[in-house]
Amino acid sequence: MCGIIGLVSKDEFSVRDELLKCLARLEYRGYDSWGYAAYDGAVVKRVGGIGNNTKGITDMKTTVAISHTRWATHGEVTQSNAHPHSNSKKTIFAVHNGIIINNRQIKERLMKKGYKFVSETDSEIIPHYFDYMLSKGKSMKEAICSFISEIEGTFAIVLFRKGDPHLYAIKRDSPLVLGLYDGKGILASDIYAFSDKTNKAVFFDDDEFAVLGMDSYRFYNKSGKLVRKKVCGFEWSREEEKLKHYKHYMIKEIKEQPSASKRLIDSFSTIQKDRLIRFAKLIRMASRVVFVGAGTSYHASLIGVSLLNKLGIESHTIIASEFESFMLVDDKTLVIAISQSGETMDVVTVIKDVLKKGATVASIVNVPYSTIQRYSKLSIEICAGQEVCVASTKTFTNQLITLFAIAAYLGVKEFDLATIPDKIEKTIKTNEGKVRKLARELYRKKDIFVLGKGVSYPMAREIALKLKEIPYIHAEGMMAGELKHGTIALVEKGTPVISLIPNENVDMLSSTREVEARGARSIIISNTDGELHIPKSGDAEFAIYSGIIGHLLSYYIARLKNLPIDKPRNLAKSVTVR
Ligand code: M6R
């Protein structure tokens, strides 16, 4: 949530062509408003996404600048709540991702000293706080150390002072990374901001700060002691980033799945072979396995549980935000975090907590060097490449394939991974036309029910999530067996009910008959027969192909409704607040 960029260089750079282009790459982290501030104190703020909204902005050249794309937490979506925020004298400028919990107390204190606030955000305290500390004769480094010790909450902050050729960056919990290229230092919320320019990065740890000059950088710990940092070279499988003939990233990413899945499957016999073996060993050694994830990644984890349980390995999963209340762990537990971004705050919070309890943490992530990966003893990368659309599609498929590979290694015999990319291709080819037709029939519907059982239950939830997220249709993905315990009361003539029926599952067939008997518009996704037909597969593999159909359906309904498919309202791809 929120993307921040800070750029410092010994040669002047263009705000529009360099700073804002990097910022636009972080837009999927939030698109309520954006803004920038440059060395001489020039500030621009706009409501909405960057998109075409840079029109009318005269380009300027500078050597120091910061920018921000916002996902609102404190305060409505307005120009005054947009970042950067500054002190009243307009000499200190800051961008922030995170939440400052004790902002009210700090604000009241600063107001008593005469500081005036113009926004409703928690972030505005930052420039005023530094203004106050500097006015008391503290150096920037001392002021940062006080800030770290006094502020409660999460933050990735980049700030500068007018006329001071340095950028100051501070981090706790919210992600922050420094990219190095062509004599420039770029601070960003994630590596994608600069992955087209460099693969050299330095990752911040919590409560660290950095001072970046025109051709130097130094990292410090919370006491102001110099910290030696490693420059990491990251690998990031790059897809063609331009939309080309596609209208949206969502459909582009759905169609990238044959190649993205093949890349992952190949990695299991090459660069990730050793990780896969060690991952399987960790599972074997644990007394129980607990998965954790949020949203789509949680749905993947449900499939992980069902695969491990088949092998007799006790495993459970829980949505990250409820982990604390509903799951117990000890030092013999293996916690497997699944996360595309590797930054989801609900998941990061769980990891920190279970590590304190002595559990072992392993993860399945897409983004290398992400926070979750860095906290893990072992991590498998799903090699899906950048996913720009907020909705997870190709990354979900690759999460499932990773779970299949682990399960296969542990002894589940039901898949032949090598055939999956072709079957994905076939699923898309055979069904895209039919799905478009179905979308025309469904796009005015208010409610859709999706039924599944066993491994198709998580898919029912996943398809329902996508129907809510992209075409904004209320949808309920549920265990088919639960239908008769209440929800069936909502089924009337014409109510759309999608049934996921792998291999003629008898329970699914009877739930489908029950809704049909009440006049539902029954839509069957099946690998034996049905309105939407997918290749022959075992039950677990069925999850992949049925998911793709569900994702296509959400996409085509949203297109008919003319919705902002890649950036649905109120959402962000990387959810870095609790
Ligand atoms: O990056 P993560 O996989 O941890 O993200 C978790 C969820 O926020 C994410 O899956 C979300 O549900 C997607 N927008 C669904 O399409």
Folded structure, characterized:
The structure is a single chain. The chain is of the alpha/beta class and 578 residues long. It folds into three domains: 3-233, Glutamine Phosphoribosylpyrophosphate, subunit 1, domain 1 (4-Layer Sandwich), CATH 3.60.20.10; 241-413, Glucose-6-phosphate isomerase like protein, domain 1 (Rossmann fold, 3-Layer(aba) Sandwich), CATH 3.40.50.10490; 431-567, 3-Layer(aba) Sandwich (Rossmann fold), CATH 3.40.50.10490. The chain is built from 16 helices and 25 strands. The strands form four sheets. The chain has an eight-stranded antiparallel beta sheet with strand order 3-2-4-1-10-9-11-15. The mean pLDDT is 95. 5-amino-5-deoxy-1-O-phosphono-D-mannitol binds next to α8 and α14.
List the keywords.
single chain, 578 residues, alpha/beta, Glutamine Phosphoribosylpyrophosphate, subunit 1, domain 1, Rossmann fold, 3 domains, 8-stranded antiparallel sheet, 7-stranded antiparallel sheet, 16 helices, 34% helix, globular, binds 5-amino-5-deoxy-1-O-phosphono-D-mannitol
